[in-house]
Fold this protein.
Amino acid sequence: MKRKDALALDRADPFSKKRKLFKLPKYKIYLDGNSLGVLPKASIARVKHLVEVEWGQDLITSWNEHGWWNLPQVIGDKIAKLIGAVPNSVVVADTISVNLFKVLSAAITMRPERKVVLSDSGNFPSDLYVAQGLSRFLTGKVDLKTVEPEQIAEAISEDVAVVMLTETDYRSARRHDMQAITAKAHSVGALVIWDLAHSAGAVPVDVMACDADFAVGCTYKYLNGGPGAQAFLFVNPRLQQSAVPALVGWWGHANPFAFSIDFVPADGVRRFQSGTQGMLNMVALDAAMDAWKGVSMERLYAKAVKQCAMFTELVEHQCGEFGVSLYGERNFHQRGSHVCLQHPHAYAVIQALISRGVVGDFRAPNLMRFGFTPLYTSYVDVFDAAQHLHEVLSKRLWNKKKFLTIQSVT
Ligand SMILES: *Cc1c(COP(=O)(O)O)cnc(C)c1O
C-alpha cells in the first residue's frame, strides 16, 4: 500500500465529514482516543455557556431552567441508542468502578443463596478490585472467582450468582460472545454484568438482543465526553423494579425533594443514581453525543476493522524484523477497535513515537496500544503512524535515556 492509496480511502470515506466536528491537535496523529477521546467542538461552546450563563448568571435555577436535573437520563437515552438499549434503561453517573459496585451489589442481593462472582483474569483490574472489595465487605458471603477468558463458558455453574465480564479486552481486543455467555448464565439462573468500556462507540452492541441484565461503560473514551466525564450504567427493564443497589442516595429516591428520612427507590433506572453530579463534565458529554447523530455502528465498525487490519499489515510487513509482533486477537471481524503490539522496549518506543507526534499508549509489561476511533481517525493517520513506527524501530530512535525513564501515567 502507498500513501496515495490511504488518501484515496479517506476521500471515499463517508465518515470523513465527522472529523470536522472535533478539535484535533495539529501535527499530531492521535491514536489514544480509546483512552481519552478528543475534544468535540460543540462541547467548547456548551461548557462556555454553562460557565458564563448557567452557572455565572442563572445559578440554582439552572437545575430546572437548563435541564441539569434530567441530564443524566437525557444523555443516558442518547447512549442507549449506541448499545441497543431501550429508552429509560441507561443513566449517566459517577465512574465505572462506582457503577459496577452499584450493579454488582444489586445483582448479588438478587441471588442470596449463591456464593460466586465469576470473572476472567484478563478483565480490567479495577473491575476485579470492586468485586474483591464487595467480597471483603460481605465477609466472604460471596467470593470472586477468576478463570482464563476462554474458560468462562464452561465455568458458569449453578453456584454462580453473577458473571461479570468486560466485552472487549483492553489489551488483546478479544471480544467475548455476549449473546452466548449471557444465554449460558441465564440457563443456570445467574445474572450477567457487561463492562462496555472499550465497546460503547467502538463496536456494535445490542444489550437487549442478548438480554443482558446489567451493563456499565465509559464516556471519556470512544464517546469523547472529556477527562473524568461520568460513566453510564444500563439496567434491563425486566429488573428495574426488583434491583436495588447497596450504594443509594437522594438522587435515586422516589421523591428526593420530600427529604423523607427513609430511602424509597425511584422507579426504573433512576434509583441507580446516588448524589449530585458534576455539570461541567455532564454538559460537555451531552454536546459530545451530538457527533453520533446518524452514525450506524455497523458501518463505523467496518471502518475500524479496516483500519486495524491495515495498521497490522503495514506493521508486520515493515517492522516484523525489529522484534515487534501483534498481541491478541487476529480475527479482524471479532475484535475491538484497537491494536496491541508487543516489543521488549515497548515503553521507550511509545515515548519516541509521542515525541514525533504519534500518540499511542504503553500497557505493562511490554505492550504498545494504538486505538482507532474511526469517527475522526483517517486512513492516512494509520498509514503515517506505521511509517513513524518503522523509523523509530529501524533507526533505534527509542534507545535514548529520556525515552527509557518511566513516568507516572503511562
Ligand atoms: C477505562 C476502563 C474502566 C475505567 O473505570 P473508571 O472507574 O471509570 O475509572 C473500567 N473498566 C474498563 C474495562 C476500562 O477499560
Observations:
- Residues 95-97, 124, 126-127, 166, 170, 195, 197-198, 218, 231 surround pyridoxal-5'-phosphate (CB under 6 Å).
- The two ends are 32 Å apart (CA to CA).
- The mean pLDDT is 97.
